[in-house]
Amino acid sequence: MIINYGDGACPADIDADICIIGAGVAGLSVARPFIGTAVTVCIVAGGGMEAEERYQALYEGSSIGNPPFDPAASRMRAFGGTCNLWGRGCIPLGTALDRRNWVPHSGWPVTYPELEADYRQARAFCGIESHEFAKGSFLTPPELAPLDFDERKLVTRIFAASPVHFGSAYQSEFEQAPNVRILLHANLTGLQAAPGGTAVEEARIATLDGKRGRARARHYVLAAGGIENARLLLLSDSVVPHGLGNDRDLVGRYFMDHPSGKLGTIVTGSPETLTRPYDRNLAKRPLPSHPEICLSEKAQEDHRILNGRLRPFAVEGAVPKGIQALRGLKAAHRARSRDWELSLKERLCIRHNGEPQYVREVVPPTESTARLALDLGLGVGDLAWAVGRKLAGKPTVKTERVDVVGYFEQAPNPASRITLGRETDALGLRRVCVDWRLNALDMHTYRVAARLFGDELARVCNGRFELEPWLRADDNPVPEVFGTSHHMGTTRMSDDPASGVVDRDCKVHGVDNLHVAGSSVFPAGGWAFPTFTIVALGLRLAGRLRTRLEQSPVELAEMPARQAVA
User: Fold this and answer.
1) Are 523 and 411 within 8 A, CB to CB?
2) Which residue of 105, 107, 189, 230 pairs with 418 in a disulfide if CB–CB is 3.0 to 4.6 A?
3) At what angle do helices 380-391 and 369-378 cross, to 10 degrees?
4) pLDDT given for residue 314 in this prediction
5) Dihedral angle computed from the Cα positions of residues 11, 15, 20 and 22, in that order, rounded to the nearest 10 degrees
6) Which contiguous run of DSSP H or E holds residue 344?
7) What is the pLDDT of residue 563?
8) In Å, how far are 137, 288, 354 from 483, measured between CA atoms?
9) Which candidate, 188, 203, 110, places its Cα nearest to that of 513?
10) C-alpha span between 114 and 97 (Å, rounded)
């Protein structure tokens, strides 16, 4: 069932077998396998069914790193989490799982064969059961054949596009689940540990309207996101001074994203050769797959660089007046029909983390609709011309050039970290402070990869590659890249407590009943979109919790003020 924790009919104190903090894809993937079982589950959801400004404000924080980083950008505090904004790309991890001797702190404690069964389960959760996969790629051929590259340099990897928006897709199941209670507008204010910090006794929760209570469980799962998981552990310091799981000062360290930036421009007489096979808008299948241009494993090893992918973006030349008018009318119609919640989503998506100008913003038209309609009538010839180009398999407006944009793995770096700032939020909790740092290996990767990508793309289209100025200067201290909202690494996984916060089963080292779900456990991120692996690890954790509960059938009857979840 899904209820508002602030409702007077909802008890302040809740008991369950499992308490999950967070109702995004990580939390839902842990909880869903328990629907209809004897296991009771409580999900503490720090927002409502839709985005709300005052709950979003709890994500605000500060940045002291370089490049700057906005911790509130592209994070949604609502049922379904940030995947309400996601791009739907699914792909299994590849070389990111492996130990690479030129990448310090790389390698996962679990191998691809160990994760393969979890990935198979994740396909069903993501609605892509028809797609087969292997390490680092799906196997379904895309609708348009990708280009042939020198495989010593570049290779094609395939991702599957999920049709699922997790909150709306699974809302009905959770509403009808008698053993699962989702508490909307309930925010974790801290985990209260037992003496010595070896177990969690209760989760303290509160609404912004003043209601406070606690959730008591046999097991607790933090599933609040790559930034918030670390913040919540650091805030839980009433027994352990530096926060739970932080005996080795590792919580919040190794913060990673997928840095992205413009690498250069391809000038060619046949730009569609580069852009058309990678235009995701051309897919017509109900469950499409799409190709990505990626660095080969050989190139990574030979040049001692990180992994990365590239997208060629067509940049339009002069837009005919009739097409400008048509686009303006469409934008005006969208603006009139846009509701408040959608507007908030759009603002979250365009909040800047240093994006360069090639990232387009949606700008409402300044002309009146009457003037736009007149221009459209006068420009009917432009529309006919555009239709002809589209029927010929070309873009409606001629491409002036192709911008080459890279998306990269970030080097695991203990100096890149999440800490607590001095300012507090509306709940009285210290806000997050992000110190996002890139190192020499990151910069080396950008310079080498730019040439590998650009020269090879220029070769296949008989064009010319022009390198971006920021990649030419060896002494450039700050790369012109921005984050892509794939927050990882802050509670990294390791078999050794000296190098990780959680073990291979996502249990916090030294805390017997505390677990972490989500990309914060990634020791390395590769370039792959993280959601598919988040789901796989969530389902894997659900299996581990089921086993532990079956092995230790301890009742909660002795807990005071017990309130059954069902």
Assistant:
1) no
2) 230
3) 70
4) 87
5) 10
6) helix 340-350
7) 42
8) 23, 26, 8
9) 203
10) 11
Which position has the token pair 């919540």?
A: 232
- Axis crossing angle, helix 369-378 with helix 321-337, rounded to the nearest 10: 150
* Residue the block writes with tokens 């971006």: 468
What crossing angle do the helices spanning 321-337 and 380-391 adopt, rounded to 10°?
90
Burial state string for 330-367 with b = 16 or more CB within 10 A and e = fewer than 16: eebeeeeeeeeeeebbeebeeeebbbbeeeeeeeebee
State both tokens at 376: 């459209």
Cβ within 8 Å of residue 196, ≥6 positions away? 239
In single-letter form, the type of residue at position 165 comes to: H
pLDDT at 342 over 80: no
d(CA 140, CA 160): 8
Q: What angle do CA 338, 340, 346 make, to 5 degrees?
A: 70
Q: H or E segment at 264?
A: strand 260-267
Can you read off the two tokens belonging to residue 112? 């691809």
Task: Report residue 67 as tokens.
Answer: 């490049």
For residue 420, give the nearest of 235, 246, 224, 241 by alpha carbon.
Answer: 235
| Cα distances (Å, whole numbers) of residue 321 to 318, 363, 380, 394, 455 | 9, 17, 9, 19, 35
Tell how strand 180-184 and strand 2-4 pair up.
Answer: parallel
Stretch 246-260: mean pLDDT, rounded? Answer: 97
Encoded tokens for 548: 């532990």
CB atoms within 10 A of CB 282: 14
In sequence order, the 6+-apart residues with CB closer than 8 A to the CB of 99 are 106, 107
pTM here?
A: 0.89
477, 287 Cβ separation under 8 angstroms: no
pLDDT in tens, 77-93: 999 998 888 889 999 99
Q: Is the pLDDT of residue 483 over 90?
A: yes
Most confident of 26-30, 238-242, 344-348, 385-389: 26-30
Number of H helices, E strands in the chain: 13, 20
192-219 mean pLDDT: 97
Nearest 10 degrees: CA dihedral of 274, 277, 282, 283?
Answer: -160
Q: For the chain, give the mean pLDDT.
A: 87
Q: 531-551 vs 112-126: helix axis angle to the nearest 10? A: 100
pLDDT digits (tens, 9 = 90+) for 495-553: 999 999 999 999 999 999 999 999 999 999 999 999 999 999 999 999 999 999 998 87
Position 398, amino acid = K
What 3-state DSSP class applies to 87?
A: coil
Give residue-wise pLDDT tens across range 271-320: 989 999 998 887 777 889 999 999 999 999 999 999 999 999 988 655 55
Strands (E), 338-398: none
Q: Which two tokens stand for residue 226?
A: 């790559």
Token pair 């995947």 is found at 83
**E-strand spans in 248-318?**
260-267, 289-295, 308-316
